[in-house]
Specification:
Length: about 425
């Protein structure tokens, strides 16, 4: 094990007591608080942004291009902001992400009904906010956790996200339906803006973390060119994971609205599926052990593909709910091992732990490459045909990518989680 002397000075006694015990530190709990507030802000309005654009245009392609621009901007932001996080102030990067999220909803409020005409601008702003926030968040997450508590942190993060996804969209759906639609959307966008501002205030209680080293711009290319590196298969797994995320992140809520014609059903859908996910994440965070990852991830991936099959019978609220509940149950089995194993790999060796910013950028570039590919394929196909049969086969093909991710991760999942070589970077 090694110690990063530049970070030892800011480590508090709480972290010393919890190190290696599997419990969460004060800083990790505060980071979870910021994560939870961001999840609430996104859940309040993020679920309905695509519906808002759809009601203005009724065009899948507009939603697809908006999402594509978002992912492209997010990838570029990750790569460019890596230098800021590595050599300057990572906490300001995190706050910038939260602040730009607030700006996004302010723009939507100002643009109003013409927002769909400015989808490229909105995609860029939303992509920048996600890039800044998640890059800084993942770096700090790596530093405040170790293999002993990483699954627990991910379980709590998933639980908070599920709780936000359960309550916030349901409240938003009620507000939109019971108020005049325009006023309802204005209110939920305003609530999101305020929530992000609160999250920014909370982020100032996170400790400033010293920067060290110089950012290596082309580490991703250098690493992937090495034939003997484990990162080549891991990167392909991340890309496969992103293929599904890029499309299913927006299409399911939109299909619920198209099938039912009311935002209230989206809220009910989120309430039910997120309640199931909350319980599933709580159980997995509590019970899932590193030695079980090699089984849980493939099981989760297979189940997530299986629940797409009812769409071939009929795409309505019932089959969408079956899909949503199935994913809610099995998604933690898939995502917790995936996330924890990748971050364990970063912390396994002294060199990669010291270059954690670059490796986290590489992780995010893999995910975003997959998101871009999945969204691009979806958009190009849907521009040619939007028949139900084509949509079903497209969703099955894109939704099967977790199987590819599990295949490429099979070797990593079988390796025991080594005692963290970077546990002393926690503060």
């Amino acid at each position: 094990m090694f110690k990063e002397r530049d970070q030892e000075e800011t480590r508090d006694s709480t972290d010393h007591r919890s190190k290696g015990s599997g419990s969460l530190t004060g800083q990790s709990m505060l980071l979870l608080t910021v994560h939870g507030l961001v999840a609430v802000g996104n859940a309040l309005s993020g679920t309905f942004v695509n519906v808002y654009l759809w009601k203005a245009r009724h065009d899948y392609a507009v939603i697809g291009w908006f999402t594509l621009i978002h992912h492209l901007t997010m990838a570029l932001t990750f790569w460019l902001a890596g230098k800021w996080v590595k050599e300057h102030n990572k906490m300001n990067c995190l706050r910038a992400g939260v602040g730009i999220s607030a700006l996004f909803y302010l723009l939507v409020l100002v643009l109003g009904a013409s927002a769909a005409d400015y989808y490229p601008l909105l995609g860029i702003v939303q992509g920048m906010s996600a890039g800044f926030f998640w890059l800084a968040f993942n770096v700090v997450y790596f530093e405040v956790t170790d293999p002993d508590n990483r699954d627990k942190f991910n379980g709590w993060a998933g639980l908070l996200g599920s709780l936000a996804g359960m309550i916030a969209p349901w409240v938003s759906g009620i507000l939109i339906v019971r108020m005049e639609a325009v006023n309802g959307y204005r209110l939920i966008f305003t609530l999101s803006l305020v929530t992000f501002l609160i999250a920014m205030i909370c982020s100032f209680f996170l400790k400033k973390r010293k920067a060290a080293g110089h950012y290596e711009w082309l580490l991703t290319i250098r690493c992937l060119k090495q034939k003997d590196t484990e990162w080549r298969k891991v990167w392909l797994a991340l890309m496969a994971q992103g293929i599904r995320e890029g499309v299913f992140g927006f299409i399911i809520a939109l299909l619920v609205y198209i099938s039912t014609g009311t935002e209230m059903k989206i809220g009910n859908f989120s309430l039910i599926t997120s309640a199931v996910a909350l319980l599933a994440f709580w159980l997995c965070g509590k019970l899932l052990k590193p030695s079980w990852r090699k089984w849980s991830m493939p099981i989760g991936a297979i189940a997530m593909v299986t629940v797409i099959l009812p769409f071939f019978w009929k795409v309505d609220y019932t089959t969408l709910l079956i899909f949503g509940i199935g994913v809610a149950i099995f998604f933690p089995l898939y995502t917790i091992p995936m996330t924890s194993t990748v971050f364990d790999l970063i912390g396994r060796f002294e060199e990669s732990a010291k270059q954690r910013e670059e490796y986290i950028v590489m992780r995010e570039l893999g995910l975003n490459a997959g998101r871009l590919l999945g969204t691009l394929v979806f958009t190009l196909v849907i521009m040619r045909t939007s028949s139900p049969a084509a949509m079903n086969w497209l969703l099955l093909a894109i939704g099967s990518s977790p199987l590819i991710a599990a295949f490429f991760m099979r070797k990593q999942l079988r390796q025991p989680a080594l005692q963290s070589r970077q546990e002393d970077t926690r503060k």
